[in-house]
Design goal:
Mean pLDDT of chain B: 85
Strand order of the largest sheet of chain A: 1-3-2
Strand content of chain B: under 5%
Number of strands of chain A: 3
Largest sheet of chain A: 3 strands, antiparallel
Mean pLDDT of chain A: 85
Distance between the termini of chain B: 23 Å
Shape of chain B: elongated
Shape of chain A: globular
Largest interface: A-B, 25 and 30 residues
Distance between the termini of chain A: 22 Å
Strand content of chain A: 5-15%
Oligomer: heterodimer
Helix content of chain A: 55-70%
Number of strands of chain B: 0
């Protein structure tokens, strides 16, 4: 029984980490102003239980790698309550990339629904 | 594990032996999130004790071991850059492949910029040190010193971004933090005790002579290789045709023309290899001086 639960958790985690970059880019694409890590995690928290399975700390290195591949840009700004915060915003290249990714996501969704379809 | 600094030291332990710039990034991210999350949790549930609020924040963020693994696995997939010159090619192709490698042009740009940044850093440090020494007797001088030492941290971060962008060497992405609520005297004491402050100071001062050496070497060698390429045309074409040279001493035989051009191209390629070498060495130097271990 425990093993089955572990398998479910593992499956969910793998699924989510595969789409973390898409989700983060989409959040920043929709946002009008730059966001820092905690704000992003708050927005994801509103989207339902899904992301709570993925540790929020795992999103930070993804943000960093998106910045490295120039899909995001960032700036550090001081904060009154603690250490300086890194604000991320999406670049033009990121905007173009996220459109492509969303298209691929749609196709993948259709494909998976076709195969898996009918399961409640 | 009850406080953010406990968490950070645990995370540091889990990242032991890893790239120090990666460790610095991971620590900065964790500190930023946990500070915000703690404040957030307390706001939502005011009745919660400090340690419960902390546990909740950590539960959402992930345990130090898990988070360390995430950073390591992502760093493995996306290194600072991937070299374009592939192995398995002939020596000839690899030798001239340097022209097509973006890393080469990054190093060239760094060499050109290093003279300017060298001048700026040097002037800033010279001004900072002399101003502080002049004013040290007054309390005001200590504030100048504090400001100057903080500015060194800024320089270290800025130079780190430049080094990573142009030389492809992993450098910290985040500034270093000071513990919250520290008085200015303690801050000054802490900055004074830190090895990093003095290493950055040495770096800013040595960047000028290094910049001058890099820049001069590059310009001299580039000028020599380009002039070697055009020398025969210059002498046999422009000067002779215009009757500016009549003496036999200035004649360059036509058959040597390809040799001059070949020599020029060879020197140009070697110059680019030298730039790569300088870039590699300077990357090591910058990591040694600007990254906190």
């Amino acid at each position: 029984m425990e093993e089955r639960e572990n398998n479910i958790k593992k499956f969910q985690k793998e699924l989510l980490s595969g789409i973390a970059a898409l989700v983060l880019l989409s959040v920043l694409d929709k946002s009008e102003k730059p966001l820092y890590g905690y704000q992003i995690t708050k927005i994801l928290g509103k989207g339902g239980k899904g992301f709570s399975l993925l540790k929020l700390g795992a999103l930070y290195p993804v943000l960093r790698s998106l910045e490295k591949s120039t899909l995001l840009s960032s700036s550090v700004e001081p904060s009154f309550s603690g250490p300086p915060r890194r604000y991320y915003s999406i670049t033009q290249e990121g905007k173009e990339t996220v459109r492509e990714w969303q298209k691929i996501w749609g196709q993948t969704q259709d494909f998976v629904n076709d195969i898996v379809g009918g399961v409640d | 594990m009850n406080t953010i600094s406990d968490y950070l030291s645990e995370l540091k332990k889990n990242l032991q032996g890893r790239d120090s710039a990666l460790v610095q990034d991971a620590l900065a991210d964790a500190e930023e999130y946990l500070t915000d999350a703690l404040a957030g949790v307390k706001e939502e549930q005011p009745g919660l004790s400090d340690s419960d609020a902390f546990s909740l924040a950590v539960e959402q963020y992930g345990l130090p071991g898990e988070i360390a693994q995430e950073y390591i696995s992502i760093e493995k997939r996306t290194g600072p850059y991937s070299p374009n010159v592939k192995k398995g090619k002939s020596i000839f192709a690899r030798f001239f492949g340097i022209f097509a490698d973006s890393k080469t042009w990054g190093a060239v740009l760094f060499i050109l910029i290093s003279l300017i940044t060298g001048c700026i850093y040097f002037s800033w440090s010279a001004a900072g040190i002399s101003l502080t020494l002049g004013l040290i007797l007054f309390i005001f001088g200590l504030f100048v010193l504090l400001f100057y030492l903080y500015s060194l941290r800024g320089i270290a971060l800025l130079e780190g971004r430049l080094v990573e962008g142009l030389l492809g060497v992993r450098m910290p992405h985040r500034p270093l933090f000071m513990p919250k609520g520290m008085g200015w005297k303690e801050q000054l004491k802490m900055l004074f005790k830190e090895k990093h402050t003095w290493f950055t100071l040495i770096y800013t001062i040595l960047q000028l002579p290094l910049g001058v050496i890099y820049f001069s070497l590059f310009i001299i060698l580039i000028a020599a290789s380009l002039s070697s390429c055009v020398f025969p045309f210059w002498v046999n074409g422009i000067l002779k045709l215009n009757g500016l040279v009549s003496s036999i001493n200035f004649t360059v035989s036509m058959w040597t023309t390809p040799l001059f051009i070949l020599g020029g191209i060879l020197l140009l390629t070697l110059t680019l290899w030298m730039c790569r070498g300088i870039g590699w060495l300077h990357g090591k130097w910058a990591r040694l001086m600007l990254v906190v271990e």
